[in-house]
Amino acid sequence: MLIKTKQEILASEITAPEVFKNRRTLIKAGIATLTLGAGLIPELSEAIDQSTPVKEAKLTPTPLKYIRNYTNYYEFSYNKEGSTDLAQKLTTDPWSVEISGAAEKPGLYHLEDLLRQNPSQERVYRFRCVEAWAMVIPWLGFPLADLLKRVQPTSKARFVEFTSVLKPEIMPNANSKSMLAWPYKEALRIDEAMHPLTFLATGMYGETLAKQNGAPLRLVVPWKYGFKNIKAIVKIHLSENQPISSWTQAAPEEYGFYANVNPDVSHPRWSQRSERVLASGFFTPRKHTELFNGYAEQVAALYANMDLKRYF
Amino acid sequence: MLLGLAPLFWLFMNIGFDRLGANPIQAIHFYLGDWSLRFLCLSLAINPLLKITDWKWIVSYRRMIGLFTCFYATLHVLNYLAVDHALMWQTIGRDIIESPYIIMGMIAYLIILPMGITSTKAWQKRLGHKWKTLHRFIYLAAVTAVIHYFWHLKGNLAEPLLYALIIAMLLGFRVLLWWRTKQIRLVVSAGNNS
């Protein structure tokens, strides 16, 4: 009930930027209004606190209908709207994640146990696709670090590799080898994986994650291009050697291991200087892309002394 | 004429009824680019069709088809400049410099636009034999337009491959014809020499 009210407020802010600038005031007004009716303040203020762990007061979430119908889920479809229906065939309950490699407690972890152990938090993050469009997504989930700490990585764990679910019987494109070698794989350096911004999402907009958005469990690394945010994770492997991500394997000169959002490092075929923010109207200028997608303050230290043009 | 405007009418319908999805600017952009390329293929198909079928009447449609190629390409470019980039010239400049796929598209457009402008009888007369040379550049425009299509995509190349195949066939037909004429000429001249 509460969540729904919040969603409606956000949706209306999206249409008018002037209104959006007064968001704080609006929220305060909303709280005031609600207080008159019921004693809901503790819950509400808690929700707001959780949604702003990195002081993202200015972010306006993209309407849910757009996020749900604009996904690159190539196993299902090459069309961004095409995976919306096709992905519904995926069974996401029950779900378990196999954690293996350099950890003290490897094993098969059931999602319901993970959810019980890791209370849901909200994170409103910018999402920047390598194709130069962007959105703002209010995720629900928990930090990847919380899960990793539980499995206790050993000193040999220098990288974390993730593998997506592969069900050729329901994934039309997973049979052909025309684009990527399936299953989809992505990886992070251990310090990136342990960073407090790095998140495992299980929901969005106060609801369970839609299947086309990567349900039941997906990675969210807000300072990297969207393709790093692997969907429907079934395996997490801790390794000593640097794994090869699916896109890097397909086109190493175009998609590097790091894939950090960086306006100064162009894709070989297109500029990364600007981005189209979804739901921003016609004749509205594109947004200037920010280094590390605007999270430089939090993550730049991870890449100190690194040539970002070389390690793209 | 009306048939050529039908795609534009359909686009306005889709904009009006908000049927273009989460990224309407890009949807418009792809749509206009697609139609420009379709008309380009169609204009290149006239000559082979004429040679095969001897339907002389189709030649009278070639100019119109070419103009529609130019029309949709112009809308495609305007959509990029005004609707997407809101005429922010500095951003546009850097975007073009850093994007090889846009440079390819630009080459195609810088050929198609003067072709559109000089498509009138008056220009044809004024340019004389240069007119034909200028309009032969359409082959280069077709090739760069398809490269433009290929280069902006991340993975799935089925659609540009289809266009590449069509254009390769249409250009291949001309090469074949040119080669055959050359052979015949050689045979004739060889016959004359003996």
- Average pLDDT of chain A, rounded to a whole number, is 86
Distance between the termini of chain B: 54 Å
The greatest interface between two protein chains, and residues involved on each side, is: A-B, 35 and 27 residues
Global Rg of chain B: 19 Å
What is the 3D form of chain A?
Answer: globular
**Beta-strand residue fraction of chain B:** under 5%
Shape of chain B: elongated
Oligomeric state of the chains in view: heterodimer
Order of helices and strands of chain A: HHHHHHEEHEEHEEHEEEEHEEH
Unreliably modeled segments of chain A: 1-55
Q: What proportion of the residues of chain A form beta strands (DSSP E)? A: 15-25%
Q: How does the helix and strand content of chain B classify structurally?
A: mainly alpha
- Which percent range fits the helix content of chain A? 25-40%
Low-confidence segments of chain B: none
- Figure out the total of helices of chain B: 9
Mean pLDDT across all amino acids of chain B:
94
The H/E string of chain B reads HHHHHHHHH
Largest sheet of chain A: 7 strands, mixed
Write down how many β-strands of chain A occur, each being a DSSP E stretch of 2 or more residues: 12
Q: How many helices of chain A in DSSP terms?
A: 11
Number of strands of chain B: 0
List the main descriptive attributes of the protein structure presented here.
heterodimer; A: 312 residues; alpha+beta; 7-stranded mixed β-sheet; 11 helices; disordered N terminus; B: 194 residues; mainly alpha; 9 helices
